[in-house]
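Hi everyone, sorry if this is the wrong subforum. Our group has a chain we'd like a structural model of before ordering constructs, and none of us has done structure prediction before. Sequence below.
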Amino acid sequence: METSLHKDLQALLKGMNSRSGSLKGTLRWNLEKKMETDPSCSISLITVLVKELEKKLKRIHERPASMHIIPMLHTLYYAALQSGFMIPTSLYKRAYKCLMNLLTLPLPHSAVALSTLRSIKMEMTTPGSLYQRRVIAEQNLRNKHFTLQEKVFVLADPAVFSAPLEATVRAYLEVSSSFRDTPTIEKNLIIHVLQKGLGTACQSSRLAQALEALGDQMVEKHFDRVVLAMEQSIKHGAAGSAAYMNRLQHIHRDILTAVKDESTEEYYGSVCSRAMPFPEIKFHLWENEDDLWNLLAHFTLRSHSSVDEEEREKRDSFQSEDSGIETYLKQSDFDDTERPLVRKCGSAFSRRNAFKSTKSADRLSLMKEKIDASPGSAPVLKEDRRCHTARVVVMGDDRVLGRLTRAYYSMRERESKCRVLTKKLNLQLYYIPVMDVEPLLSSPDSSCQDEGRLSLASLLGRVDPWYNSNINSLRTEISKLAHTNQNEPSEQNLLPLDTLCYYLRCGTHPVNLPLYSVKMTHSSCDVKSVVEEVFVSHLEADIPEFRHLKEKKRCNIRSRFSIGDERELPLNKYLDKVLSLPINTFTGVTL
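Answer:
Right subforum, don't worry. Here is the predicted structure as tokens:
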């Protein structure tokens, strides 16, 4: 098996240099499907990856060796995430030692190695934690012990998506929500965690049959126990590993003893799916720039209603404790009905509904986000209280990134005055290039034209070869969906959906594209009009007085802008870098 996987890995790495876009993404997808078909091969794949990483580390100064390290790190992470079998501790320690040596490499290799190292370390002390946390967040399973929830929004450019393509892609992406069954997902998670934590001691077939016989309330109770045991183990680190195993053994025993029938006729695979469930995806045509703000605001307000309730209860219970505060509050006439709202800032205590300026905290949070955007930066604050994540995927050509630029800049301006979203929401941005030319009808000339409108996708592909292999290859695969007769994903056309899920799970390292602001003043008949625009790569200006010219005036940060009277001024002098647009990739750099 190791020999076969080694050949597959070598073909995958060599395929990164191939000109065939479809071949690049298919090689990684085939390897992923092989792990789903035979979960036991994940141990052999991790062994092969660690051996290859050790070889590449010795030849790190060679360009092919350094280019292949990041793809192998992501493959290692995904193998540990998907594996449903207990991975030997000796293999984990070998992988841990190899990753520690990779930390000496320069950015971005060390940043990706550090992220993989943290995941491997957590999986080593708490087996099954990567898989369970990821599924709970993606499926929005409400649990008091792990409150992280995620939502995926796909925003498509109407200029690229025709009506037939829009209808097909919408049905293709949103069909995963119709198969979402919370009790079944909880059963699968219980079996996956117990099997990965207990190994051969887990009686998978009996456990699956017992869970099937239990009611939904009992399944939820045992699932809550598994999540609690896992979160306590993660909190205590290596010191809590032994207690975690003991809790898993007790949960395993309690589930089996709850059902008297000990027959094992039912097969384990019919209950526990080996493939990770698809996240809930919402598809939208991006008609207006305010659509992004409205979607995020609606998600934030709806998701945090229950969380805010719990926080208020905790705060009320804290203030009612007999620690001397309650007596002081009574003696100090802290009565909400008799005192005005605004108090002196220097008072030791303030009422709950008193005015409190949070501008300093807002600035600190925005500054933290800007620092964290730098690759390899350490977290500034000890704890991130944002327990909800919005993953926004934009599809289209350069124009949709221009729209995202303006929407993101407008949102940051709002947040700098009054924090509404960034206080409670973690925003992650993704970009998938899509062509509006049907692949069956495209010609060499149209191909060159499309490459010009996908300049930013080409740029991301150059700085991140793994992005180029997996995401840039989707530009034709998504367009092909309009020619398929099936609206639902099947085994034959699962490649785009699986690749999107892989991008969402592993593309956590942003490439920070600089945003530029330019202000143009136009005077006509003693009337001045000022236009201020924000753009990421280029800006086209249609000036009425010069429409008779053959060529539309084009503002490009690498060229000069003609003002019509044969004088040319360097455009760079009139540009201000105002912000960075973080687009998630697999490498993460700052341009």
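For your construct planning: The CA atoms of residues 282 and 291 lie 13 Å apart. The first helix runs from residue 2 to 15.
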